[in-house]
Design goal:
alpha/beta; about 210 residues; globular; binds 1-O-pyrophosphono-5-O-phosphono-alpha-D-ribofuranose; nine-stranded mixed sheet; binds uracil; two-stranded antiparallel sheet
Length: about 210
């Protein structure tokens, strides 16, 4: 399933991020805010369990989250989405997957992986601003599946149809959430119109 979260606040903030003159500080801040807004939408169907609490007025039957939530940022750029989601889900655990795209072949290369326990039973949210060819997302999904993860959501800011199709073909069980579905990839694998190199813009490395 693909869901494009075209909420006015998300689109407004994404427009700021797309602007080539936006500073590193504002790029980072808007990414953080969009990640939180996306998490709010995506968490609507998080599993809950019935609990009893004692309010100052007496007993209350209510609900609490029933599963661990695990965020999995794909390094580097996915790191820019973590704190905005942790603001909303402060009990979430954070795995890390390090992948970089070879600039010539566009193939992803793994350089780091660290997971919490109990991936089997958790709601796993893989986060990365860009879904271009889909190679990095597919590799990350394969990696978390090897850890036993079954309930997996892929959360990206900007994607293109090629990348969405690649993930749907390889992992049809994974729900994909985007803030925007852009037109296409250019000849060197960048999203057009996109927002440029997300990692470089977040960390000020270009
Ligand atoms: C970018 C982006 C994704 C990947 C998307 O990362 O953050 O991880 O490219 O491209 P794909 O869908 O074609 O795989 P990059 O490899 O540039 O690494 P970085 O985050 O360290 O800059
Ligand atoms: N990675 C990025 O950071 N930007 C793109 O447009 C494509 C891949």
């Amino acid at each position: 399933m693909l869901k494009v979260l075209d909420h006015p606040l998300i689109t407004h903030k994404l427009a700021i991020m797309r602007d080539k003159d936006t500073s590193t500080k504002d790029f980072r801040q808007n990414l953080d805010e969009i990640a939180g807004l996306m998490a709010y939408e995506i968490s609507r169907d998080f599993p809950t369990k019935k609990i009893e609490v004692e309010t100052p007025m007496g007993p209350c039957t209510t609900k609490a989250l029933s599963k661990d939530i695990v965020l999995v940022p794909i390094l580097r750029a996915g790191l820019g989405m973590v704190s905005g989601i942790l603001d909303l889900v402060p009990t979430a655990k954070v795995a890390h997957i390090g992948l970089y795209r070879d600039e010539e072949t566009l193939e992803p290369h793994e350089y780091f992986a660290k997971y919490p326990k109990n991936m089997e039973d958790a709601v796993v949210m893989i986060v990365d601003p860009m879904l271009a060819t889909g190679g990095s997302a597919n590799a990350a999904i394969t990696m978390v599946k090897k850890q036993g993860a079954r309930n997996i959501r892929l959360v990206c800011l900007v994607g293109v149809p090629e990348g969405v199709r690649a993930v749907e073909d390889m992992h049809p069980d994974v729900d994909i959430y985007l803030a925007a579905l852009d037109d296409k990839l250019n000849e060197v694998g960048y999203i057009v119109p996109g927002l440029g190199d997300a990692g470089d813009r977040i960390f000020g490395t270009k």
